[in-house]
Amino acid sequence: MDELYNRYGKSGVNTPGNRFRHWRKRYCWFVVAGGASLLKRTLDIIVAASMIVALSPLFLVVAACIKLTDGGPVIFWQTRVGKWGREFPFPKFRSMVVNAEELKDSILDQSDHGDSVTFKMKKDPRVTWIGRIIRKLSIDELPQLWSVLTGDMSIVGPRPPVPREVARYTLADRRRLDVTPGLTCTWQISGRGDIAFNEQVELDSAYIESQTFWNDIKILFKTIPAVLSGRGAY
Q: Residue 185 in contact with residue 153, Cβ under 8 Å?
């Protein structure tokens, strides 16, 4: 016991010097993490606000086309699951018929992803003519810029799932819910709807593990050609 005291009690982890280094490391970590969060939030607000202002004429044209198609609502609201499993209202320009959600159960077996967690269908009969156009260019997702401003979403992050998908998540899949969901993400620039669910999880997990401000910038700029190509958008 005396030997242990002499070895660790006098010069071990409980000395003032070591305590100072311990708290300095913890303080520095909080400062760095807080600074990164602030930087990401600043990017979100600047990009979202700028895009809303710049694209407002396009919003008006799209809204008019949707309204004139069938007289239904312009915005489709859906419940999505965000950070730490918190549900939030998720807006999109309506690209389907008004009763699309009621019709979904009848076509679940036609999903291009098979019996996967996610549902994707290249020739979904519920999509309207204007819906096909705005989905091809991802214009239907633009109302989520408002969700970015409110803090429910970020510009870059894993796409938010619907509750019925989360109900089928494994423990590993739930890793995606550890961060704020985003408007675009790694698999969005890698093929979007053509990417299988398991690969989506892998790409999202890799993003979370290596998340940096500059990585977000890189994904943001890669989103532009990905959207214009129309690959995986249906």
A: no
The model carries a pTM of 0.81
The helix (H) or strand (E) run that includes residue 149 is helix 144-150
**CA-to-CA dists, residue 74 to 64, 67, 111, angstroms:** 8, 6, 26
Per-residue pLDDT of the chain (234 residues; tens, 9 = 90+): 454 445 444 444 555 555 555 555 555 444 455 568 899 999 999 999 999 999 999 999 999 999 999 999 999 999 999 999 999 999 999 999 999 989 988 888 787 766 668 887 888 999 999 999 999 999 999 999 999 999 999 999 999 999 999 999 999 999 999 999 999 999 998 888 788 899 999 999 999 998 999 999 999 999 999 998 877 677
180 dihedral zone (left: phi>0; alpha: psi -120 to 50; beta): beta
Q: What is the DSSP letter of 162?
A: P
Q: What is the DSSP letter of 160?
A: P
CA distance 84 to 212: 20
